[in-house]
Design brief:
- 13% of the residues lie in helices and 27% in strands.
- It is of the alpha+beta class and 77 residues long.
- The chain has a single domain, classed as Flavocytochrome B2, Chain A, domain 1, CATH 3.10.120.10.
- The chain has a four-stranded mixed β-sheet. Strands 4-5 form a two-stranded antiparallel sheet.
C-alpha cells in the first residue's frame, strides 16, 4: 500500500472534532493523535489537530521524544 499524502488543506480536515480523526504534522510526517488521551477533542495545551506543529513541538517540555510512540499515517506534501 502506498503511503498516504496530505496537503495542508487536507490535513486541516483531521481536527478531532465532530467524529473526525485528529492528525498533526511534524517535520513532514503526519501522526494520528486520535487515541492519545492528552489530545481529547483534537486539542492539547492550546494546540489544535489538523495542523503542522513542527515549530510548536520544539517549544514543548517533551520535545520530539513523544513521536516514537505515535502512529504514522502519512506525509505532508
Amino acid at each position: 500500500m502506498a503511503e498516504q499524502t496530505f496537503t495542508k488543506e487536507e490535513l486541516s480536515k483531521f481536527d478531532g472534532q465532530n467524529g473526525n480523526k485528529a492528525y498533526v504534522a511534524i517535520d513532514g510526517t503526519v501522526y494520528d493523535m486520535t487515541d492519545v488521551p492528552a489530545w481529547a477533542n483534537g486539542q492539547h495545551h492550546g494546540n489544535v489537530a489538523g495542523q503542522d506543529l513542527s515549530d510548536v513541538i520544539l517549544k514543548s517540555p517533551h520535545g520530539k521524544s513523544v513521536l516514537a510512540k505515535l502512529t504514522v499515517v502519512g506525509k505532508l506534501v
